[in-house]
């Protein structure tokens, strides 16, 4: 009787979302024969050089080799790094590669290296929210659900055939942080199930993505953080949740930039006739700010520069915001 060889997996990923998947694959007993991750970079308040979460786990678990090229394109900016990494992968000859939030484009040469191709764990229900920040943009847009799509990678930006999808509701209190953790765990479970199917010799059914419903999740930029208080409070509350934990939505009073970590919209006409940006009340229940369309935003967790996140009651002890205080609106007082 012929003994079935274990499925040899290469893994490519960088942040915590990817680390969760790598840990699940390793715990399921699949041999991880190579790990690719972004180069170590400065991070945190001290801006000390740190390894990515994926690399940290790979080191702790004794996985490897660990490859950290700045590019995988032989004709790109770093041809020597790319060539060495791709040649190493070719020598290892993995059966399949799993990719999750890696951060580098995989050229055709790499996509075709594994005999079973490259599987991507994407944090949205494709074709909605292709691109870099699908979790943030789903919350910001007011979507009622999102999920994980396991996809067979091609050379496009999240355009490959869908192998499996599973939906997750977006609750009214969900932030990018909370939804990230839910989706990361789901992605780990789904990819392990897919790998078990492949290991058993069963092909994964592939479905082409429809042309209708395509949206792109642009990378989150720090300059998106300021809240435009002329907009309705419902939209602003979604922005606060979407930008938690990065980059953190902000308001500005004078020269002080305040981060808003938790907020909820209040009923329409709450703020009339006050102009947007006016603090209507500030107490233990929160800081209530007039917004567009007669709405108001109640901010319940805030952070001043150099401080820590605090409930409104504690925050206001150090930085009072009496009724009538004006916040910057759309860049001007």
Automatic annotation (TrEMBL):
(6S)-5,6,7,8-tetrahydrofolate binds at residues 124-127. The keyword ATP-binding does not apply. Residues 8-195 form the Formyl transferase N-terminal domain. SUPFAM superfamilies: FMT C-terminal domain-like, Formyltransferase. Its EC number is 2.1.2.9. GO terms for molecular function: methionyl-tRNA formyltransferase activity. Residues 219-319 form the Formyl transferase C-terminal domain. This is Methionyl-tRNA formyltransferase. It comes from Cupriavidus agavae.
